[in-house]
Fold this protein.
Amino acid sequence: MWEYSDKVREHFFNPRNSGPLEEANGIGDVGSIQCGDALRLMLKVEPETEIILDAHFQTFGCGSAIASSSALTEMVKGMTLDQALEVSNQNIADYLDGLPPEKMHCSVMGREALQAAIANYRGEEWSDDHEEGALICKCFAIDAVMIEDVVKANNLNTVEEVTFYTKAGGGCAACHEGIEEILAKVMADRTGPGEVSPPPACPATPEAKKPSTTKLTLVQKIKKIEEVLESVRPMLQRDHGDVDLADVQGKKIYVHLKGACSGCMMEAATLGGIQQKMIEALGELVQVLPASHMPAEV
């Protein structure tokens, strides 16, 4: 599991400015529950000065998403809208004394929600799907423009880093080739024609430690998978549902959703949440699928 700074824990256990903001005049919605993360950022802006007087949030996501959203609302209060537009996802992570690299997509979501809320206040069009860009990751609806922007802003160099910052590539992995093409394009722009130089390092978050890169045996992997399922089972059982492991085939983990979870309209969100926990526990990108998707035996 990842190690979080004290500030991340503080904003997770005691989030600031959570809940609706009745007098909000700028609202930004990004992400989707189906993809596992969704954020609504609400701003109360003073019209004459364009100063943000108050900011609230509502989020569906992991602890890092809650902490990032909480931190963002504290950061922007008192700023003008133009000042707020200069806030980067790295600023959000720095405010929290660092986020695990695997959780940087939470700070990216916060930055986009802020941009969307400001655009909403100003009556401008803003879309988090960047319609002008080709769709690269169908699992999480991430397009080429967003990936390229995040790669440039954060000096990313690998598919794994892109997944940590955007979630693109964290599902079926079919988009990895497309992500690699974007990385190659940005790398060429960095070095210029005829130049060869080593890629710059990805911004570090020293307080966040990556999991061990030691490869797990199949028995160890299954044990960790079962531990994750045990950790989520009480939550599912409270809603009269349950989950059991069906099979492990490489990077694909098949599970039986039982009781109220079987056929539930929130099935995709449930699987997405379990998948995120699996990635954290195993230290590798895996996909969690319903047992009905298992390939037929020959």
